[in-house]
Specification:
alpha/beta, Rossmann fold, 4 domains, five-stranded parallel sheet, elongated
């Protein structure tokens, strides 16, 4: 991010603009929406500028911008449509400590003005760092359509009602009231009874929320999928939007954590202090404690929470404390990995069952398990199988598996840095060790990538595809 988006307080502050033509007028259309004191320097002003000055919407000084003019200015706009004159303005403004924007000149600007969707006091600013103005315009058009035109009014009236609503306890209770107002009772009242209707709705909605019992906290046990945020379910997305507390595992990708509500308390259950793993008991305690405090807790686990997620231990603790919970399934690593190599987990006349196993558990495999797996065509998705590769390889060969059985290792499935390594049972080790895997990896026993391109590589999939 080269440019950091902020909302600058400009009410009653000085904004200076140099230029008197079309470019200046275009900027002024935006600036005049603010409560700033605007001064325009133009030796030869457009008629519209004279008109705006006559209406006292801005102060017009009919000469070129010069030394002293940027004093105490929050912002200076150079809109002269003349590179030399703009350069002169930049030099003076910088001497006087002001931030300058040169119209249509990203390179020489200290700040840029975003595309704006205005539902004052709700303002959406869209920036592309100058990379794609077309994209910014498309997003703006989309939002203009989507955000109801009365949103500004609802927000202004809501703002005035904030103090009254503060009677509700902070956190979920208060949020539920506001969600009800903004998305249900407020818009409905506006449609039937206009502004007065909205005022009544604020009061009746508050009464309703005040006199219904405060709900207990609850826990959503949510699958975050394999890493790609687009592989989150809509339910998971909504749970993240609403969570007061998010307790997440080590493998949950940062892009997904970004989606949590900004006010949410984020707890990394993968690590405590410097690198030590949190014990399961401690995680259970945390979940229960936060829920008992009345919070909406999202327990976020990689992939699907029901697959090698120690879910049942958490459910036992939650139910023992009399707390409600629900499970939101996610896409497990095996599904993401197999999709990535263009295969199916099951296939008619090849394998009608698939095993999800962990490398650790395979050490306790019974003889008949190994025999079944060693039969041609069996497919297994081996989770946490990096360290167990040598052991698995030895046992399968011992039980008569074909040494040329396809094995594919998929590291960081669905993520940008993914790698696909196609090998065979006889080469599983040292291939696994030689690959030097850093990320989570899934071993698909009995499957090879469908395409030669995918099969080719120990390279990241992106590069291999080129
Ligand atoms: N609940 C998870 C599994 C947790 S066990 C799920 O359903 O996917 C952790 C193991 O999952 C890792 O050791 C690795 O084998 C596998 N895994 C998780 N995310 C992965 C990813 N993006 N790519 C490959 N394997 C992954």
């Amino acid at each position: 991010m080269q440019h950091f988006p902020v909302f600058l307080s400009v009410a009653g502050r000085r904004i200076v603009l140099s230029g008197g033509g079309e470019a200046a007028l275009a900027k002024l259309r935006l600036l005049l929406k603010t409560e700033a004191n605007i001064t325009v320097f133009a030796a030869d002003p457009h008629a519209d500028l004279l008109e705006l000055a006559a209406q006292k919407r801005l102060r017009l000084v009919q000469r070129h911008f010069d030394y002293g003019d940027a004093m105490c200015a929050r912002l200076v706009y150079a809109a002269n449509e003349d590179a030399l004159e703009d350069a002169r303005v930049i030099a003076i403004a910088h001497d006087e400590g002001a931030l300058v924007n040169v119209v249509d000149d990203l390179h020489n600007s200290d700040f840029i003005t975003p595309a704006i969707v205005d539902r004052d006091p709700v303002t959406v600013a869209i920036g592309t760092e100058g990379a794609a103005p077309v994209l910014a315009r498309a997003i703006k058009a989309d939002l203009e359509q989507r955000l109801p035109s009365n949103l500004g009014l609802l927000a202004r009236m809501g703002k005035a009602f904030r103090a009254a609503a503060d009677i509700l306890p902070m956190g979920r209770k208060r949020r539920e009231f506001w969600a009800d107002y903004y998305f249900k009772s407020g818009p409905r009242a506006f449609e039937t009874a206009g502004k007065q209707g909205v005022q009544n709705a604020l009061e009746t909605t508050l009464d309703r929320h005040l006199f219904t019992d405060g709900r207990k906290g609850h826990v959503d046990l949510v699958g975050a999928g394999p890493g790609d945020p687009e592989l989150l379910t809509l339910k998971a997305r909504k749970a993240l939007d609403a969570a007061d507390v998010v307790i997440y595992d080590r493998l949950v990708s940062p892009e997904i954590l970004e989606l949590a509500r900004r006010e949410a308390i984020m707890v990394n259950a993968g690590k405590e202090g410097f690198g030590k793993s949190m014990s399961q008991d401690r995680i259970n305690d945390l979940i229960v404690q936060h829920a008992k405090d009345g919070h909406h807790v999202v327990r976020l686990k990689s992939g699907d929470p029901t697959v090698f997620g120690r879910l049942d231990e958490e459910i036992d603790a939650i139910t023992a404390a009399g707390i409600e919970y629900r499970i939101v399934p996610g896409i497990t690593a095996a599904s993401a990995a197999v999709a990535q190599i263009g295969q199916s987990l099951t296939k008619r006349d090849r394998n009608s069952s698939v095993r999800l196993v962990t490398g650790h558990d395979m050490k306790g495999f019974a003889d008949h398990d190994w025999r079944a797996l060693a039969q041609t065509g069996e497919v297994a998705a081996i989770y946490m199988g990096k360290k167990a590769a040598r052991f698995v390889q030895g046992r399968l060969l011992m039980h008569g598996a074909d040494p040329l059985t396809a094995v594919t290792i998929i590291e960081n499935a669905s993520r940008a840095d993914t790698r696909v390594i196609a090998t065979t049972l006889q080469d599983l080790e040292p291939t696994m060790t030689d690959a030097g895997l850093n990320g989570p990896a899934l071993t698909l026993y009995g499957l090879s990538p469908r395409d030669a391109v995918q099969a080719a590589s120990t390279l990241p999939a992106k590069e291999a595809a080129q």
